[in-house]
Amino acid sequence: MRTRVLEAAFELLSETGTLKMRDLAERAEVAHVTPYNVFGSKRELLAEISRSLIAESRDKLELHTYRNGLEYLFAALDRTSSTLTDDPSFYRALYREAYGGRDFALLETVQRPRLDFWNEVLLRCREEGIFKASMKTESVTQSLVYLFAGSVSRWINESIDTTEMLAELNVPFLKLLEWEAFPKWRPFIEDRIRYWSNLLPAEPSPEVVE
């Protein structure tokens, strides 16, 4: 039953861009109370969708081998970027449900599985000596919620495109990582910063007052 309701939720988000619990029950062909009985609340359903997406990404990442944690981190960033770029409508719908009402607590709940994943990635890098032992990985991952919240409202309303939104996320996040990295690893992170910085829109030139 859980899988049935979850699959119906994916279908609704993909096809209609919304996720109403009554519509979900009808799509899954179950009683109207069943989605609540299975997941407890819409918030937990959205978090379960996020967990499912993270598990899929993790499985695909594990199909490859990596020389070190930083290479895995970059691959995970690339995976995130490609999924958002390949299917922006679905992810806009998901985050519209998660943050359309400017409910930061809801957004954090939905993002929690993703933050847990990134915390694991950063811990691996720290253990391999890529980042400083003093690095507070949970603080760095928590910053992702704030970074995302800053761009998501404009993105879900299509005021900015997916590439710009990703650049707005990647540049400050990578700068945080650069700060925490040992000198040996910083050039690799700096290359990424330059790449994403070039995708940000150019700032308008100041007007010349004569």
UniProtKB/TrEMBL annotation:
Residues 20-39 bind DNA. Residues 1-57 form the HTH tetR-type domain. Pfam families: TetR_N. The keyword DNA-binding applies. The keyword Transport does not apply. This is HTH tetR-type domain-containing protein. GO terms for molecular function: DNA binding. Keywords: DNA-binding. It comes from Novosphingobium pentaromativorans US6-1.
